[in-house]
Design a protein that fits this description.
The protein is mostly helical. The protein is built from nine helices and no strands. It folds into two domains: 30 residues; 141 residues, Tetracycline Repressor, domain 2 (Orthogonal Bundle), CATH 1.10.357.10. The longest helix has 21 residues.
């Protein structure tokens, strides 16, 4: 897809290249777009796991920053073409149609975590706004044209710094829950 273009590559070609049948391909990926989005879904799963492992007495925004950076680090180092895959997702209109769903799931993981770690509120508006701000930071870093797959650690350092800055600015907005004992 990177070499020949997303539109010109067929699901059958992908299956043949992977050495699997068409039925197996569609069982695991559902569509051609699923091949490209699947690693992002793994990133969401890693983020959910990282947030679930956060200590109950840890600052929730610090846990979010650490979870995002750790899941991004895991994702970036899981593939030789992770950034190229993101650029394909970010620039191809056919793949962009799935962005709302996938980024929505990413933001929902953060929102759910923050709701669980903050004082009860009438609506989850503040946790949702914080999740949206985190997505904006993440996308801004991924769109940086200086990024290369050979220098992933610099991207992660910038992501960490920018998340720290944005989350510090938003920290007063999140109502704190009563301290809970660690389980």
């Amino acid at each position: 897809m990177l070499r020949d273009g997303y539109e010109t590559v067929t699901a059958e070609q992908i299956a043949a290249e992977a050495g699997i049948g068409r039925t197996t391909f569609f069982r695991y990926f559902g569509s051609k777009a699923g091949v490209v989005w699947s690693p992002f879904d793994d990133t969401i799963a890693w983020l959910i796991d990282d947030l679930a492992e956060a200590a109950t007495d840890e600052d929730p925004l610090e846990a979010v920053r650490e979870g995002i950076v750790h899941s991004a680090r895991t994702a970036l180092h899981s593939s030789d073409v992770w950034l190229e895959r993101f650029r394909l997702l970010d620039t191809n209109p056919a793949l962009g149609a799935g962005a709302y769903e996938h980024w929505g799931a990413w933001k929902q993981a953060i929102t759910d975590f923050l709701v669980s770690r903050s004082a009860p509120a009438r609506t989850p508006a503040v946790p949702m706004a914080i999740a949206g701000a985190c997505q904006a930071v993440f996308v801004a870093q991924l769109r940086d044209l200086d990024n290369t797959d050979d220098d992933r650690d610099t991207l992660l350092e910038r992501l960490d710094q920018d998340l720290s800055t944005v989350l510090a600015a938003l920290s007063g907005l999140l109502p704190r829950a009563a301290a809970r004992p660690s389980s």
